[in-house]
Amino acid sequence: MYKIIAVAASIAAFLVLGPVAPGVAFAGTTPSPAGAHAYIGYPNDGQVVPANKPFRVWFGLRYMGVAPKGVKYPNTGHHHLLIDTDLPPMDQEIPSDRNHLHFGAGETETMIELPPGKHTLQLLMGDDMHIPHNPPVYSKKITVIAK
User: Fold this and answer.
1) 127 is in which domain, residue-wise?
2) List of residues 6+ apart from 31 with CB closer than 8 A
3) What is the pLDDT of residues 58-97, one digit of tens each?
4) Into how many domains does the chain fold?
5) Which of 44, 51, 80, 81 has an alpha carbon 20 to 30 Å from 38's alpha carbon atom?
6) Residue among 39, 77, 44 nearest 61 (CA)
7) Exposed (0-12), middle (13-18) or buried (19+): which is 87, by Cβ within 10 Å?
């Protein structure tokens, strides 16, 4: 009976709040630790990087641990690097494509290659199933210039 009431309450809340707050994303169900913060340690915002040549991207994380995909351990997750895209929906699995790179083995850095021009980079932590935590843990979006 409790589950039915909880589902009914969730549906009612969605029906009431949905039209009032369009575009509000609900986060996943895996909790993140208080104060957890992801950041890009390198390159820096506004930095020029080599075009069409590999360069290193270093992932930073505070107050949270890194664990590979499929490993469910409290206060851990793994990195996803978002390139030239906005944050995905927070209640769904993070896409895996050329704009959403998964580091499910627990990597904390990578080498990427970008064509000439301005590009954005952002980190988003995912849980054991690639779903953002609640609240989501992500870095600020930085811009790099590939020349």
Assistant:
1) 2-146
2) 133, 134
3) 999 999 999 999 999 999 999 999 999 999 999 999 999 9
4) 1
5) 51
6) 39
7) middle
